[in-house]
Amino acid sequence: MFITLFLLAYTVGSPAVEFKPVHTDLIFNEPIQVIVEESNPSTMYVVEKDGLVRSASFDIDTKEKPIFLDITDRVKITNDEEGLLSFVFDPNYRENGWMYVWYSAQNPKRGVLSRFTKDKDEDVVDNTTEQVLLEVSEPWGNHNGGTVLFGKDGLLYLGIGDGGAANDPHGNSQNTNTLLGTVIRLDVSSTGTYTIPKSNPLVDKENARGEIWAWGLRNPWRMAFDRQSGELWIGDVGQNAWEEVDVATGGENFGWNHREGKHPFGTQGDTEEKFTPPIHEYGRRSGGSITGGYVYRGEKIATLTGAYIFSDYISKKIWVLMPQGEDGTRIANRIANKTPLSIASFGETQTGEILACGFPNPYARKGKIYLLVGSEPASSTIP
3-class SS at 348? Predict the structure, then answer.
């Protein structure tokens, strides 16, 4: 059994915060994402890395976690960073029953973007409805990226890692003729696979994939849209020295493997103006694997409004990146120097409150879903 994790004050006069388990005894096997479907705010959907999506009620203290989608027969894990990595509902899910996943497959090693369709009369998704939309060859078993989500424009976005190994040896992230090391944007509104939006930045460019929306990334582990500004916030995992937070609006080259964070990397390293610098970085003394989060737009902790909440999976440190001044600069304030929680992924309720998939340590396999609240929340009702 887990206890309430912490009650810690942070700077700039903000209130104390705590992560509270949504359900005390509801434990998941390697939960790495939590999703709330817009028309059903009282239910959370939890992605388990081995290939299951489970559902659970927010409102009822339950031990029930029925399977919603089971693709364990096609998710193949030979390396720790592989698995069922992300899940999202179509914006018109209630009408078309569509949902999308990004998962690892083998022989050959690849990442798979697929659509599944749920029958309105069934509680469980029929996994034979899979329609493969895109497959991306993965040279190695790490740096698989992993977030699939929709923007306000109704288009699907997917973050993909550089293909793995160290140093990006094939130069994938700076090669716009591959989808590795990118965020891609697709129109999946038709019953076919996808079309490329004409407004994508590399459409009609020579030696470039039109699907690409931003590039120069190493391993974008979790990204999310600010529901107010529409900006895409990305946590990009570093290699030797620097973890970074990037903000994308389309067309950015974030510099990997010529830069790590704001710094030159390797023999080819430079800081040319063509690269978009991260909005924030931190070094190895603060952690070693960033988990990207959300810009807080909820109502329970007013002083966090507009702050980007993110964490480091290895060090367990959790920060808020606060907006400061008219020049747009931001300052990172640590919520906690070290907490008992390794966060694999954040989530967002319909009303903008922040959820987290948490483990007691980076090597644990059992975890829970937590809610970030003020130290004395007016209500424990979710959302």
Answer: strand
Answer whether the bond into residue 257 is a cis peptide, omega within 30°.
yes
Residue with tokens 């966090």: 304
Mention every residue, 6+ apart, whose C-beta is less than 8 A from residue 100: 87, 88, 90, 113, 114, 115, 116, 133, 148, 156, 188
Query: Which tokens belong to 378?
Result: 């007016």
CA 300 to chain centre: 23
Non-local (6+) Cβ contacts of 153 within 8 A are none
Q: What is the mean pLDDT of the chain?
A: 89
Q: Which amino acid is at 257?
A: N
This prediction's pTM = 0.92
DSSP 187: B
CB-based contact 33:47 (threshold 8 Å): yes
Residue whose pair of structure tokens reads 């699939």 in the numeric block:
148
User: Which of 123, 118, 160 lies closest to 143 in space, CA to CA?
Assistant: 160
pLDDT tens by residue, 225-268 = 999 999 999 999 999 999 999 999 999 999 999 999 999 997 66
